[in-house]
Specification:
- With about 170 residues, this protein is of the alpha+beta class.
- The protein is built from seven helices and six strands; from the N terminus they run ααβααββαβααββ.
- It has helices spanning about 5, 10-20, 30-35, 35-45, 85-100, 115-125, 130-145, and strands at about 25, 50-55, 60-65, 110-115, 150-155, 160-165.
- The strands form two sheets. It has a three-stranded antiparallel β-sheet with strand order 1-3-2. Strands 4-6-5 form a three-stranded antiparallel β-sheet.
- A hairpin with a 2-residue loop joins strand 5 (about 150-155) and strand 6 (about 160-165).
- Helix 5 packs across helix 6.
- The longest helix is centred in the middle third of the chain and has 18 residues, at about 85-100.
- The N and C termini lie far apart (about 40 Å).
């Protein structure tokens, strides 16, 4: 065993996965994340990151520390998203908030179809906005939202795609 192998910690894999994105409850690294939470936080804080662990919601991610002026060390670059994708995100977050505030629901996860997203967005767009173009491009906005990790494709049947809204959208 060389010196590098000796330095690898039992939670190193979980840190690497966190640096790449979200770790969910069903991940093989979830138990290490829970078990070594303090060690992981101590390690990543050295590079200006904070562990955000949402045990009840079943996911974890890292976030950059911000100083009083909102500045970071710049480890993670901020992504520019267009107006239309922002509107999709707002509608999805609102839909999840409404779902969570309805105590009669037994389900813990919010699912939505692309046609439901379209219907919700119709109410959101201003008069005079080019709705025809927006509807034509809607698939690309939803795809971008999936790429950003806020939607997860669950199933596809008869030109209808069902998604799960990831709870990270509320963060």
């Amino acid at each position: 065993m060389n010196s590098t192998e000796q330095k690898i910690k039992p939670y190193s894999k979980a840190i690497v996965k966190l640096l790449k994105g979200v770790i969910e409850r069903n991940s093989n690294d979830w138990e290490d994340l829970i078990l070594y939470q303090n060690e992981i936080q101590e390690y990543i804080s050295q590079i200006g990151l904070e562990l955000i662990l949402k045990k009840d919601d079943g996911f974890a991610f890292v976030k950059q520390f911000e100083d009083n002026e909102g500045k970071t060390l710049g480890l993670v670059t901020r992504r520019q998203i267009g107006f239309e994708t922002s509107i999709v995100l707002v509608v999805l977050r609102q839909s999840l908030e409404e779902f969570d505030s309805n105590p009669t629901q037994l389900a813990t996860e919010k699912y939505i179809t692309d046609s439901e997203i379209k219907d919700e967005l119709e109410l959101f767009l201003q008069e005079g906005y080019n709705k025809l173009k927006f509807q034509k491009d809607l698939e690309s906005y939803i795809k971008k939202t999936v790429e950003l990790g806020y939607l997860k494709e669950i199933s596809k049947k008869d030109n209808e795609t069902k998604y799960q809204i990831h709870r990270i959208i509320k963060e």
